[in-house]
Amino acid sequence: MPSALVERVHGLAELDDLVVGCRACPRLVAWREEAARVKRRAFQGQDYWARPIPGFGPADARLVLVGLAPAAHGGNRTGRIFTGDPSGDLLYASLHRLGLASQPHSTWRNDGLELFGVRITDPVRCAPPENRPTNAERDTCRPWIVRELEYLRPTVRAVVALGGFAWQALLPALGAAGWQIPRPRPRFGHGAHAALPATDGGPALHLHGCFHVSPRNTYTGRLTPAMVDDLLRTAAATAGLNPTRPPDDPSD
């Protein structure tokens, strides 16, 4: 189980290596491997990753973005979080416009993409059926993100929850990793913000809410590229980064 496995690691790189071998949730293991066998027609010639997805980004990141779980034919195929699907296309393009990513596209785990001061992770590391992990699967997976946040704690100053699931999953994880969660608990919303004091008296952590960058939100206009740029720029500033200002038209 992850709760026992994380006790073996001594650094973020070692944690990332260990997580890819996790088989703690039978339903998720079966689904991620079934997706790799069946494949989508467009990806018939590709070998799917079909394992848990580690976080992506530097070990001294000041800003962390947290999603939901890998997509069955996105990260579960490519081996990198938010890579190979429309959600990732929007997210990485925004990070590139802000000067926080080396390129606007993320297509495969070895495509040369670098993030600057930013790390991206998920509270659930395997692709779930219908993008809906159970509460038990979320809780079983929690030790991975708690330990990841503990390793990032010396430098991280802001976290963005991409969607309500990420927000709810993050609150107990952040509490376990060393930050105080206000009472009543802060509520999710696009643009929501809460400052979480550190339990050891260190710098506070800024928690930001953003609608998830899924097609369900972007294709309906609920979330636009400009809204993503504005939210990430604000979060990056609270993290102590210096994002560039994108052009007036985010599609340029």
Structural write-up:
The chain has 252 residues and is α/β, with parallel strands linked by helices. It has one domain (2-238): Uracil-DNA glycosylase-like domain (Uracil-DNA Glycosylase, subunit E, 3-Layer(aba) Sandwich), CATH 3.40.470.10. Helix content is 36%, strand content 9%. The protein has a five-stranded mixed sheet with strand order 2-1-3-5-4. The chain is globular and about 50 Å long. The model has no long low-confidence stretch (mean pLDDT 96).
In short:
Residues 54-232 form the Uracil-DNA glycosylase-like domain. By secondary structure, the protein is α/β, with parallel strands linked by helices.
Instruction: State the name of the first-level CATH class.
Output: Alpha Beta
Low-confidence stretches: none
* Estimated radius of gyration: 17 Å
Instruction: Tell me the total number of β-strands.
Output: 5
Element-level helix/strand string = HHHEHHEHEHEEHH
